[in-house]
Amino acid sequence: MKVRDVMTRKVVSVPADTPVLAIARLLADRGISAVPVTDGWGLLLGLVSEADLIRRLSSGDAPEPGFLRALLYDRDRAAERYAAVHGATAGDIMTREVITVTEEVTVEHAAALIEAHRVRRLPVVQDGVLVGILSRADLLRALLAPPAATSDDAIRAAVAAEMQRLPWADAPYVFFEVAGGAVTLHGFCHSAAVRRGLAAIAAGVPGVTAVVDRISDLQATRWA
């Protein structure tokens, strides 16, 4: 599944000269946590999030006193940070380094980016132009979408490929069969964790309707 299949295409964006208070009101009224900033051509310039607005409040605290803090205090850096946080417009306070994706990226890769960078959404761009937003909610809808019908051969190939890709899944005494979309695991394995992992591999392949674990405990079989 691709990002284009689940992303939100109707995106609210603001120009760089939008007042900060107007952005705060927009986020509150729309019930959204961030808004993209674009130019007149639709090019993505940055993103203003709730975090950017919260920093505006938190930075109001005066610096803690102390000789060491005073010695290490960087006035220029502090002034620049204050100006950025307390700027009057979206262009002043927006986050400029934004992780983006294109419509052709897989939802799995997009989910990995969201997890790795600890963000709630990814702007979707085409040649720099904003065309949509992919949020965590969009990914949840993708997870709940009914899987398309998949042949047993395709399921078998996908399970085998994933087992080969993951080093821990190298279980030479385990094999599986696929019939009617159901994956049945056979063989011997001494690790309960590996058994659970192998079952998870099978369950995660699109089109799988059931997973049957018939793997035996290698140690128990040896001493039986």
UniProtKB/TrEMBL annotation:
Keywords: CBS domain. Residues 151-219 form the BON domain. It holds the Pfam family BON. Residues 7-64, 94-150 form the CBS domain. It comes from the Bacteria. SUPFAM superfamilies: CBS-domain pair (SSF54631). PANTHER family: CBS DOMAIN-CONTAINING PROTEIN, CBS DOMAIN-CONTAINING PROTEIN CBSX3, MITOCHONDRIAL. This is CBS domain-containing protein. It comes from Paracraurococcus ruber.
